[in-house]
Amino acid sequence: MSGLSTIATPAFVVDREIAKANCDRMRAKALIAGVVFRPHVKTHKTVEGARLQHGDSEGPITVSTLAEAEFFANAGFDDITWAVPVAPSKLDRCLAIAKRARLILLVDHPSAVAALSEFSASNQVDLDVMLKVDCGYHRAGVDPDAPESVELALSIARAPRLRLRGLLTHAGHSYGAKDAGEIARIARDESGAVRRLGSVLERAGISGLLRSVGSTPTMSVAPIEGVDEVRPGNYVFYDAFQAAIGSCHLSDCAAFVVTTVIGSNESRGECLVDAGALALSKDPGPVHVDPGFGFGVVCRIDGVPLPARLVSLSQEHGIVRWRDRSIRVAIGDRLRIVPNHSCLTAALFDRYLVLAGGRIEGEWRPCRGW
Amino acid sequence: MSGLSTIATPAFVVDREIAKANCDRMRAKALIAGVVFRPHVKTHKTVEGARLQHGDSEGPITVSTLAEAEFFANAGFDDITWAVPVAPSKLDRCLAIAKRARLILLVDHPSAVAALSEFSASNQVDLDVMLKVDCGYHRAGVDPDAPESVELALSIARAPRLRLRGLLTHAGHSYGAKDAGEIARIARDESGAVRRLGSVLERAGISGLLRSVGSTPTMSVAPIEGVDEVRPGNYVFYDAFQAAIGSCHLSDCAAFVVTTVIGSNESRGECLVDAGALALSKDPGPVHVDPGFGFGVVCRIDGVPLPARLVSLSQEHGIVRWRDRSIRVAIGDRLRIVPNHSCLTAALFDRYLVLAGGRIEGEWRPCRGW
Fold first, then answer.
1. Out of 2.50.20.10, 3.90.850.10, 3.40.50.300, 2.40.37.20, which CATH number does the structure's domain B2-12+249-364 have?
2. In chain B, N or C: fewer CB atoms in 10 Å?
3. Among residues 271-310 of chain B, which lie with CB inside 8 Å of chain A?
4. B8 to chain A: which residues are within 8 Å by CB?
């Protein structure tokens, strides 16, 4: 890994071959299942990453911010779902994007539907809308089994300039699973939620609704059944969290932080590295399965995991405690750290170095802000 | 707060008048104590913030990254301490900065001293060095009471081109205090560590060493005694953490995130806001004193705290749970959130909006990266 020995640290590195394998595997799974593949781009927020997800091409995508929608529309992605409920004050920006690309908005509340109806009427534009459904995560979305949810869907369908495209859910609670078996059970809740509400709405006269699901744990582990669209995102890079709960193997993790040893305390069996909270994020990781590695998996620079715990992070310092006290590193040595949560870690860097064939072949520049 | 009603959210806002009061108070305290005032700029990383710390002027500063050292040297700050142990691979960049500004480096290990000695000799340059001392935080630094520490200081003093300027310590463990009384006890440990080692070194023939201390809790609460230099940083903004442990009042917090309500679930007594982990950081805050507010203090847009707990953050969503179930907010309403850790929150934004006299008067652009 000579390519990693001279870069300035801390650095965020993407192993392009591993990322490509992750992308190809997930895209093939969606293709075989015959569903629309609309991957989330929020983990990497790069044009290069999104094209990798679609096999070196543009295609439908899911975004988490309006800044991403603008960034990817500028790059030629013309079919975008913004998978966060829209606030009325952001509709002007949505309209500007919708002139260049199909932009699908998310709603889950009568007042938002009213705001969108009024906005679309006064601006004389049609708006594409998905109804957000709660499949048990309890973050956003309507109850798939409540009569009010049917009423809300009907009110969207009746609004002259709103086009109800489908039902969208996200099993974020799959991150709380302890293993692949539990993830598979949550995957059934995820698809079941949009299927049940979809069936009721079909009987109420609204047919052809797209049933859209997606979380990296459920999409990695469970079969794709009874839905029309999938939206995984984190799988491009995966991370230590996903490996710990069984979504992937540690060797599938395609992104890591390269760090330099800046201190060594032999009596405490610790070393100090130059990757702190601003290089890794303070995401505590999968504490519910207690994998023992702390704030990330500490590896040799060639990727071999070390018996260590990243016990604490302050702004620019990380403390690594060795479980094997015979380990010795010297000041100036380099390590790689597989982050707990690649989405939050990637967001801390304004460029990603791309590793291929053992050398840095270029860099990706992500979209930032909102 | 009409100035906050139209900005795009999430936004990071600095109340300039509160920040100025925090800066003036700390600078006056250092002035009265007769010590060198070398504030840390890592919390805000802006030229405007650093000048505010020095009363609308340049002055000695402390930085956490080489990128900050370069940024502030370019802005006319010519006396800079980099308060993180230096790795040998970064010495070329240090040398480039040292041609424009006085740059003081930190060491705490014989191998780093050897690397600096060799580098300074082969480049025929003198390097200013502080010896990092551990006062109980156990992150970095030498044991102030160990014979090896005296040996290390002597080896720096004897190196032909290293200039030992002083002893530097940071009581980061003051963040683990439960109240102002405990902070005051830690402050005595902090100053005691550099005073004890300083006395021993004086008897060993090394006199005139600067004894440098600094953490926002200790500098806010305790008297400045028996030291020569102070380096607090977080106090410019303070945050919910500092208020919870007694470093300041909540009304001293000068930075907050403005967020928009994007969902409301009345049956769960919750609302959803557009400030998630990428707008606030996942810093869990002062869990050891369990202040009950979760990932930040949720306030009305005018700054009045609300009976709420910010129970969870995902990438772009925050869930607020009301302790008073009669509270109702509507989609589109705005709230402000005082972050748990202003250093990590500020680092997520590429601009800070500056509030003064109830309106946004401009923006500060921070330094980013390493």
1. 2.40.37.20
2. N
3. 272, 274, 277-279, 281-284
4. 90, 370
